[in-house]
Please model this.
Amino acid sequence: MHRILIVDDDTELCELVAEYLKPDGFDVTAVHDGAKGAESAVSGGYSLVILDVMLPGLNGFDALRAIRAQSSIPVLMLTARGEDIDRIVGLEIGADDYLPKPFNPRELVARIRAILRRTEATETGVAGAKPRDTVTVGDLMLDTGTRTVYRDGAAIDLTTVEFDLLEALLRAAGTVVAREDLAQSALGRELSPFDRSIDQHVSNLRRKLGARPDGLDRIKSVRGTGYMFLLPSLSDEPG
Amino acid sequence: MRTLFLKIFGWFWLATALVASTLIVATWTLPAAALPQPPHSYIEESADALAETAAITYDRDGRDGLRAYVARIDRPGRLHAFVFDGDGNSMLDAEVLPEAASFASRYSFDHPPRAQFSPTEIVAGGAATLADGRRILLVTVSEGGHASAIRDNLFGVFVRLRVVLVPSGLVCFALARYLTAPIVKLRRATRQVADGEFSARVGPSIGRRKDELADLARDFDVMAGRIEGLVGTQQAVRRGISHELRSPLARLGVALAIARREAGPGADEAHDRIGREAERLNGMIDQLLMIARVESEGDGADRTRIDLAALVESVAADGEFEARASNRSVACGPLASCEIRGNERLLRSAIENVVRNAVHYTAEGTAVAVDLRVVPGEGRALVIVRDHGEGVPENLLSELFRPFYRVEDARDRRSGGAGLGLAITERAIRMHGGTVRAANADGGGLAIEISLPVESDR
Model:
């Protein structure tokens, strides 16, 4: 039984979601304002938080910032349909995924499952089931054990999704990784049409990683296919 | 930006400079007679007095005394004196200036001529009588004449000109500043408002000024305030629609899913219907919000360089994904590489609507063709989306882009959407300086052609 926190000021919707999710094995607790939501998310021992963007008082983004300041608990944002900016900001602050509202409840269950599957895999990885591993490309070093990325020895703060995305790209550095494959490995789900979330995550990742020492982009988009992490030119290779 | 300032400053300064220099040039060029001159009588009287003294000196000390006296009067380079006897012959052996000689030759003791003024010298004569009754004539030649007065003043003229130009320049500068500063501020605020920054105001920076420009600035503030209010209301209404209309729909969606689960397969058809209707409402809200957004953001500052080929390709790929479900497809032709400047979200939505529309109307088993061409020389990119459907009657082609317009067709009413898709496209494309055209393609089907200005490489 997974305990899920839903933060949404629409009490009736919360009740319906709780009712809908129960047979799927989710125990849903509802909170109706941002400040309390952030508090419960950090302290309550939940597996996942469903966070609405439009909240009275502390809005969804501020609540997410408050949560991220203390916890890496998975957060699924509910954004207003058509408001891309909500999605962009949400993913940038560190939401694990988003779902435009009104949503299809089956899609909600699928997203929750995908996020939980991913975080559980990560946790068992930390517990030692998956051997600790590092990937180094140019001045970047990714440590799957601590789930940290270093650029020239300095740690870069990445969200879970960005880390998984970078890992997938780095492991295949120099070759093109399809957007669908990236969605599978970073989001744990298939891309639906008109879904730009992978592109958004990649763009956040680009911004956080910065340009290469030689000024080139690290991640190249390959039109219609996906993305490629460029291998550093030979002169930049350390050692 | 600075040109109005420069114009006002330049013209006013030029005007004062012209007035000043006209005065000076006039002084220079007007005939001597028109100028105030030292009175003849004064010069003639002093010549007479000099002649008197010369006569007394000659009577007392003879020729040597006279020579010494003349030498004393002489100021080299400025004033020379010559003494002639009654016959016009020089009484001294010193060289005589030609001006003095000619004056003496014309001299008549009965009708003494007036002093002569010329640009180069002033010649005057004075007569006296010696003790023995002979008459003598003393001629003074002042070098330089009235021209020297001007020449002496030329330096002064330039000083004066500078004295005129510097303060007049300062005054003109201040005047130009005073007139243009509020215009510059107004313009800055206008630009801010145009860029969507509706809180921009001019009033505080205008201060306590009271004139037409200040009134204009204050009126601008009132106008900006009204626009800010209207836009604020519009945005609030938009957010409100987005939130308030969708909340019940969100609840409906979850309730429907629960009902579906509880009721079992018997009620599937009705449930599907409810789901479709809810989705249709959602689609309409999406489109209404989108059209409001096109109006409010279309010409805003949110413009970037967009790789049009990549955009078209990704829209086509999404369309293909959607089309596959209904046994149709979207095929990309060759895509010319080009960049345009615009709001990516609006453009994506504009092209997406056309592609989705085409997927919707193309016959089952056919493919929608999407092409991107660049018209060389015209700097335009053409996105052509062609379906293999039934097309549209010629006389209705231009109606397609009207909001809420629907071609009467049974399939249409099942389709959801509010008939706003192509209207959104038309507006979004127009905001980007482009055009949309619909035509029935050769061999059936509808072709929609979007033409957009290409961003040049520079």
Remarks:
- The first helix of chain B runs from residue 3 to 29.
